[in-house]
Amino acid sequence: MSLPGAPTAEAARVVADFGQQLMLQRADGTRIEATARGKRRLAVTGDWVDWIPTGDRAQVTRVYPRHNVLWRQDDTRSKTFAANVSRVVVVVAALPRLNTDWLDRALVAAAAAGIEAELVVNKSDLAAEHAHTMQRLQPYAAMGYALWPMSVAQGSGLAAWTQHAQAHVSLLLGASGVGKSSLLNQLVPQAQAVTRALSAGVATGRHTTTHTTWHWLDTSQHGALIDSPGFQNFGLHHVAPEALASLMPDMAAHTGGCRFYNCGHTHEPGCSVRAALQQANAGLTPARYASYCSLHEALTHAQQTARRGG
Question: Does a structural domain hold residue 36?
Fold first, then answer.
């Protein structure tokens, strides 16, 4: 899925987001520091915006309608952090051990936003651990998620994936230690320097929002990576619990035969999803079903809390 370009000739793209402080790339390729109008956080990395000059800086006056948006979750609320993404790329590795709970949240978040997701599986040079991780990921491959084995340290698999990433805006995600930063720096050698320069450029004031940064894959500017370090979970509170099963392909495959039209697939009699758990070749594993139940409970609690206004 490719995304449309600039909505107008004057629009600028947000290429770094530090909360109230932004960096914009203008139509001629130059960049300018910017602030949001007022105290509300309007724009995030990937947004197209209108702006006006204010001295040697800019002020964002409008955010154009988004093709999609992703949310991150902190202790108290969900916040937007990236927009207009065409692919979510989750980096996992042979080591550290795969966290399937985090992976499932990432895939649900992508599906809820209508964004294609895939997995880069790093550290293929650790043969035994890599084979074990690939085995654990087979249920995801069976659901249709592409797996891209590679070794960033040895350069294996990088060229094929880089070619694949062209003409897409890929959001790059991964837990500490999986090699996400190493992958970014291999593909975009100037990424660290760009990030340091952007950080220094908007160093005024306090920035409590972990920044996301846009990196072009090459000078043709046909493909880009958005790097978003430092958050623990995707925000899913905007997802209704009754919609969750449709966002998990292995669950969705078995939802058509439930006795009740509003079956939550957790305890109801006559549930076709729970029946599928007893079938060896149904493609639904106990671990994935447990993940569904955990997410469903969390979303139900969030929905009830919102209705109570707390």
Answer: no
